[in-house]
Amino acid sequence: MTPANKRVVVVLGMHRSGTSTLTRALNVVGVELGDHLLAPMEGSNNKGFFEDIDLFELNIHMLQALGSVWHGLPPIEASDVESLCRKGYFLTAVNLLRQKMAEVSIFGFKDPRIPRLLPFWDRVFAHCGFDVNYVLAIRNPLSVVQSLTKRDGFTPEKSYMLWLGHVLPSLFYSQGHNRVLIDYDRFLDAPQQHLELIAMRLGLGLSHEALQLYLTDFLDESLRHSVYNVNDLAIDQACPQFVQELYATLLEITNDNQLLENPAFHACTVLWCDELNRMKLNLRWEENLLGQIAELVQGRSYLETQLHELTGREQTVVLQLQEMQQNYERHNSEQTEREQTLKLQLTEVQQHLEACLAEQNVRENVFSEQLQAMQRLHDSQVDEQRLQFTEREQLLHGQLSQVQQRLESYLIGQVEREKADSLQRQEIHQAYELQKNDLIRQYAERERIAFLSLDQARQQFEAQVLSLTEREKAYVLELQETHQAHELKMAEQSRLQYEREQVLQAQLQTQLQTQQDELAKLAEYGKAKDAEQEQLILRLQHQIKAMRKNYFWRLMSALHLLGGNDLGQENSRNLLPLKKQSVGLAGLLSYDGESFINNAYVTLLGRVPDPEGMNYYYNRLQSGVSKVEILAQLLKGPEGKLRRVNVVGLNKAVRYQKYFKIPILGQWLKFFDNKRMGKSQH
Questions:
Q1: CA 469, CA 258: separation in Å to the nearest integer?
Q2: pLDDT, average across residues 651-658
Q3: Nearest-5° Cα angle at 600, 598 to 606
Q4: Separation between Cα atoms, residue 47 and residue 218, nearest integer Å
Q5: 158-214, pLDDT tens digit by residue?
Q6: What is the residue-wise DSSP string for 90-117?
Q7: What is the DSSP letter of 69?
Q8: End of a domain among 508, 529, 553?
Q9: Does 197 lie in the same domain as 86?
Q10: In a shared domain, residues 270 and 355
Q11: pLDDT (tens digit, 9 = 90+) per residue, 392-416?
Q12: Distance separating alpha carbons of residues 105 and 409, to the nearest angstrom
């Protein structure tokens, strides 16, 4: 099959715009998606991405080669395409696409990065010679912005510009090919009707079996978390007027996709793309500024992490010190308990010794009493014997010798008994002395052992206290060194951040001074043009009556106006832009309320406002929208572009207000503006 007979269906759309759901729907109309697809991701795309992995990785590598990312704001330029070709990505893309198309007659794929790389892929499609078809997916920008804020943390201003950067290239490069424009919210409300529209616009057949499977098994309410209408965009002050007008126009086209082929719509697309290209420098500058802000935030997060780690380490050291203190107190308590135990043991020994001494004293007293009793017994016996002797001497004088002998023998025995008693007393006394000395020696030995144990315990305790003191000193030194290093690092980081802020402040002050000088010149120029404006208003008032007759022209949008083929070529020539005129900004801003809206309509559009326009812009004024933004909105509308009235200084005033919306830059501008106003009052 020749390349011309093979078809490629590309799904184009911004991230979070339902491109995965629409890509899965291509199976219903017979489009092959391949089998090498990204896996679903819980919390981001539970049903699946339906993106070819090879094409997905190629797009990522090409963006990296250009030094960009999927959420970069500046559009891809022709020089970037040439750079990719020189680096060999063109041949890689051609071979990869031919490989995917080798076995199928119609192949479909999507990657939200493709709209940014469409200048490159358009050249690849042309080289391969395939029949290229496009499914353009759009969704209310407010839903996209909220989804990106929740998932990626982007600011609303950046998300709106990303929506423009994806939608406009898709409209521009799909011109001349079969294409269909689908709104995601309307698709979910009536999926079968939109699938039939896709099949009709792309000339494909619809499989009813695949359709029922898609409607019952794939689609459910979890695919949509928020629904907004086009009027909700006017409530969000971060939404540019350009985005509101573009989405409203595309939403009208989804009612009649035939308008996509209207040359007038292509002309509007070219104008919109030119407007985006004129914002290119501002987008690059804004992206650089957001990058610097991200670096500052990342640096701050790093410092906070380091501070948290140091705080954790400090708490750990404090806990260790507390634990050491508790151990010290526990050891001290244990030592005190041991000392008390030793004292109790010593007291018990002393009490035991005293008991032994008391028992010995009792024994001595008993022995003394026994000795005294024996002595008394001896004395009583002697007295009795003497009495008997006297009586016998008186009675038996004759037996004196015998009695004397008996007495002598008795005395000898008594002496021996006394000697034996004396020896017994000496032995008892010696035993007492030995037992006493032994008890004294045992007591001294126990006391010596107790004092040695106490001294050894004291030495161990002093060694532990000394060791704990040394460890405490080491921890304190380490903590001091860590604290000093942390303070030095924090001081260095603060100094670098301060220097960067000073440089940024100087740059912003220089730019602000330049802007203020230009605004002052424009104000002087506007005053000079006030007289000319007065004459212009008088001249336009004569034209109002004639313009009121063309009521259809005033009420219809640019697309309805330019799409009126029934008017013929003659009427189209009558709708050519008028000669460009210039008016002063200061004169228009001097009015308030309905007077401001009347003068803006007359000056910029050449007519008085209709009730709907008056109510719309008056409500925007009341909601806080600035006069400068309303003037810019009128000029960017279809009638304003045809009138081509030049309001001197308006573009710079719009840029100045955009700078105020950037968080950090707006704060600096307000600071210098208040400072300048204070000097003017003094």
A1: 90
A2: 71
A3: 85
A4: 8
A5: 888 889 889 999 898 988 899 999 998 899 889 999 999 999 999 998 888 888 888
A6: HHHHHHHHHHHHSS-SEEEEE-TTGGGG
A7: -
A8: 508
A9: yes
A10: no
A11: 767 767 666 765 677 677 778 777 8
A12: 159
Report the run of H or E that residue 33 belongs to, with start and end.
Answer: none
In this structure, are 523 and 502 located in the same domain?
no
pLDDT tens-digit readout, 119-129: 999 999 999 99
Q: Which of 81, 80, 70, 83 is nearest to 166 (CA)?
A: 70
Q: pTM for the full model?
A: 0.46
Are 116 and 238 members of one domain?
Answer: yes
Same domain, 269 and 174: yes
pLDDT at 410: 73
Of the listed ranges 14-23, 283-292, 451-460, the least confidently predicted one is 283-292
Residue 156: closest CA among 141, 170, 137? 141
Residue 65 parent element (H or E): helix 53-65
Beta bridge partners of 108: 9
Which position has the higher pLDDT, 534 or 463? 463
Give 538's contacts (C-beta < 8 A, 6+ positions apart). none
Contacts with 513 (C-beta within 8 Å, 6 or more apart), sequence order: none
287 inside domain: no
Q: Give CA–CA dist 244/241, Å, rounded.
A: 5
Tell me the two tokens of residue 35.
């089998």
How many structural domains compose the chain? 3
Last residue of one domain, picked from the residues 475, 508, 541 = 508
Is 283 part of any domain? no
Side-chain-side CA neighbours of 121 within 13 Å: the count stands at: 28
Q: Kindly give, in sequence order, each residue whose CB lies less than 8 Å from that of residue 11, ignoring residues fewer than 6 positions away.
A: 19, 22, 23, 26, 108, 109, 110, 134, 135, 137
pLDDT value of position 125: 92
Residue 597 has pLDDT above 60, yes or no: yes
Is 412 in the same domain as 550? Answer: no
For the cut 60, the answer to whether the pLDDT of residue 48 exceeds it is: yes
Q: Indicate whether 572 pLDDT > 60.
A: no
**Chain-centre distance of CA 579, in angstroms?**
54
For 330, the enclosing helix (H) or strand (E) is: helix 280-395
Binned at pLDDT 50, 70 and 90, residue 659 comes out as: low
- Please check whether residue 269 is in contact with residue 253, taking contact to mean a CB–CB distance below 8 angstroms: no
The pair of structure tokens assigned to 412 is 């000898």
Q: Are residues 369 and 336 in the same domain?
A: yes
162: CB partners within 8 A, 6+ apart:
14, 15, 71, 73, 148, 154
Range of the structural domain that residue 540 is part of: 519-681
- Alpha-carbon torsion angle 299, 300, 302, 304, nearest 10: 170
**Whether 669 contacts 508, CB under 8 Å:** yes
Confidence of residue 664 (pLDDT cuts 50, 70, 90): very low
Residue 514 lies in a domain: no
pLDDT, tens digit (0-9, with 9 covering 90-100), for 436-450: 788 788 877 877 887
Residue 190 belongs to a domain with what CATH number?
3.40.50.300
Q: What is the pLDDT of residues 208-243, one digit of tens each?
A: 888 888 888 887 766 666 778 778 888 888 888 888
Q: For the chain, give the percent of residues with pLDDT over 70.
A: 79
Task: With CA atoms as reference, report the closest residue to 186 among 215, 228, 155, 154.
Answer: 228
Same domain (yes/no): 392, 538:
no
What is the number of residues in the chain?
682
Q: What are phi and psi of 657, to 5 degrees?
A: -70, -35
Q: Which residues have C-beta within 8 Å of that of residue 369, sequence separation ≥ 6?
A: none
Q: Does residue 127 fall inside a structural domain? A: yes
Q: For residue 630, give both structure tokens.
A: 């309303």
Backbone φ and ψ for 161, nearest 5 degrees, come out as: -70, -35
Per-chain mean pLDDT for the chain: 78
